[in-house]
Amino acid sequence: MNIAEIVRFALRGVAANKLRSSLTMLGILIGVAAVILLVAVGNGSAKAVSDQIAALGTNTLTVSSRAGGLTMGVADALVDPVLAPDVKSVSPVVSAAAAVAYGGTSYDVGSFVGTTPGYFAATNSPVSAGAVFGADDNAQGRRVVVIGQTVADSLFPGTDAIGQQVTVGGALFTVTGVLAQKSSSVGGSDADDTAIAPITAVRQVLTGYGTLSSILVEAADSPKVGAAEAQITTILDRRVPAGYRIRSAEQLLDTQAGTADTFTTLLGAVAAISLLVGGIGTTNIMLVTVTERTREIGIRKALGAPRRTILTQFLIEATLLSFLGGGLGVAAALIAARFSIAGVTPIVVPGSVALALGVSVVIGLFFGGLPAARAARLRPIDALRYE
Amino acid sequence: MHPVLEVRALTKVYGEGDTRVHALRGVSLAVERGQYVAIMGPSGSGKSTLMNILGCLDIPSGGCYLLDSVDVSGLSDRQLALVRNRLIGFVFQAFNLIPRTSARANVELPLAYAGIHARERRERAMRALELVGLADRADHEPNQLSGGQQQRVAVARALVTQPALILADEPTGNLDSHSTEDILTVFDELKAAGRTVVLITHEPDVGARADRLIKLFDGQIRSDEPKRPAGRHAEANAL
């Protein structure tokens, strides 16, 4: 009996038991699809987090001080081509929560920022419409404001925000630009819920002339972030005896990436459990049918089937079911991965496809092949009487 | 000419220690080519055990079994598969057709294991089904056939390889009288065509149609008598 003949026998065996075949495949399908999809979601959310941080600019340093020693003087001192040659720009920042009103609508902006024009470049925040304010606007304390997309959507739904006047803290500000949308955040704060105005105007209207919230320092380029940090440390040590803290975007990125990794690991564990459950389901169906299959093997042996022929047939059946189920699972996962799930765009990891497929095929082969191998070794009469 | 099958001092013991059961206690018998032998006996007499050993489905605890003058006890698993396939056609009481598989595919199965090509297989399976009068049911699956029809498919499957020996373990045990008649007619025809048939039964009228009746009791042969051999042969030859 040649191999083509045995393959035909196996196909007939799969087709003859449609319910069992489809249940077996379903178990494998669910396991494989769950693993691929959950890992893809974990990976996608990790990617979203790192994208978001990259959008903030990776060569920036944020100086903050709990004791409140940051003044405009400190910020000016950091712009020093001799002591701090690797600093490209310095943006003093004051921020507060503020209500912005337009017509009859009022909107509470999460972070109303007062700063200098260098901030836009340092934080990688271009405008999508209108223009940012310039050094001139800042110097003269003009009341102009650039608003984030969320603010624009809330106050000016369907209309153009540019040139309109909004009320902030009792003063009128003219909207000169709308920031380009940043990638939406995962469970964190909305990066588009912001408004940026010249620091002189904001101090005058909102925050007063106290200390700065922080100072944003941009390094010349990313390899020089460390050098820039050392240089400003030297200056700050003298200027801010009360104590300060420097955080780099890099550190923030590392922390967030660590969190995302944990998240991916967690989803991976859930996925592994689904694979296990799917595997147990498959095993269950295959073991439940052992009695019937053992009898069938007994009949085949009584008709003169050699052991090897029986084994080959049953292994091919198990392989077919495993690969068909696994293949369909991969297809289902790839299709589902095209949609965003809970606000996350899944990114399929090739390794997870190989792993899920491998494990399920091994389960299918093992639990499909093992009982068959055992039955094929029995004497025909024992196989026929098996219960 | 040597006998088709010959067993000498065959014994079979099941279990260990206190639960030991002697199913066969030294059975010796020889069956000549073309004989139609019925084996009868009460339950527990060892008929089925004997039949399973004759069909190479089980192995004896002691004694010797020559099939076509080959000692079967010395054969490997592979060679035994070959013997079951080429020399023996076995009919079970419980039919034992492969479920959800057409009658023709069931009959083709032993030919497939014999390595015969699909076309020839199909033709021979159809001829065997015609012989048992079921050519029109070739595409039916076992659960679409009556018990008698299923057993006739099983008989077709047993004889399709032209085996030296056809063994039937209570082939009519699960059948009504009408179906029993159908099956026995098929066996009569096989006998007439010169095939060797050994069957087990506990119905006297089934046993009465054979040319030789062996009675087993407690794992031993109690009587072994030819039954009107001349008349039977004459009648069969006249058909």
Fold-level CATH name of the largest domain in chain B? Rossmann fold
Going by CATH, what is the homologous superfamily of the largest domain in chain B? P-loop containing nucleotide triphosphate hydrolases
For the sheet with most strands of chain A, the description reads: 6 strands, mixed, barrel
Shape of chain B: globular
Fraction in helix of chain B = 25-40%
Terminal CA distance of chain B reads: 26 Å
Largest sheet of chain B: 6 strands, mixed
> N-to-C SSE series of chain B?
EEEHEEHEHHHEHEHEEH
SS field, number of helical segments of chain B: 8
Largest protein-protein interface = A-B, 25 and 32 residues
What average pLDDT do the residues of chain B reach?
89
The CATH architecture category of the largest domain in chain B equals 3-Layer(aba) Sandwich
The whole-angstrom Rg of chain A is 33 Å
Give the rounded overall mean pLDDT of chain A: 84
Q: What gyration radius of chain B follows from the Cα positions, in whole Å? A: 18 Å
List keywords for this structure.
heterodimer, A: about 375 residues, alpha+beta, 2 domains, six-stranded mixed barrel, elongated, B: about 240 residues, alpha/beta, Rossmann fold, six-stranded mixed beta sheet, four-stranded antiparallel beta sheet, 8 helices, about 35% helix, disordered C terminus
What this model shows, in words?
The complex is a heterodimer of chains A (387) and B (239). Chain A has helices at 3-16, 18-55, 72-78, 118-122, 135-140, 149-155, 199-207, 225-239, 249-288, 290-302, 307-336, 350-377, 380-384; strands at residues 60-64, 87-102, 105-115, 127-130, 144-147, 165-168, 171-179, 194-198, 214-219, 245-248. With 387 residues, chain A is α+β, with helices and mostly antiparallel strands. Chain A folds into two domains: 3-52 and 255-384, no CATH class; 66-243, no CATH class. In chain A, helix 2 (18-55) runs antiparallel to helix 9, helix 2 (18-55) runs parallel beside helix 11 (307-336) and helix 11 packs antiparallel against helix 12 (350-377). The model of chain A has no long low-confidence stretch (mean pLDDT 84). Chain B has 239 residues and is α/β, with parallel strands linked by helices. Chain B has helices spanning 47-54, 77-86, 103-113, 118-131, 147-159, 177-192, 204-208, 229-238, and strands at residues 5-14, 21-31, 36-40, 62-67, 70-71, 88-91, 165-169, 196-200, 212-217, 220-226. Residues 229-239 of chain B have low confidence and may be disordered. The chains are: A alpha+beta (387), B alpha/beta (239). The A-B interface holds A 1-2, 5, 9, 12, 16-17, 292, 295-296, 298-307, 309, 379-381, 384 and B 52, 55-59, 77-78, 81-86, 88, 90, 92, 96-101, 105, 109-110, 112-115, 157, 161.
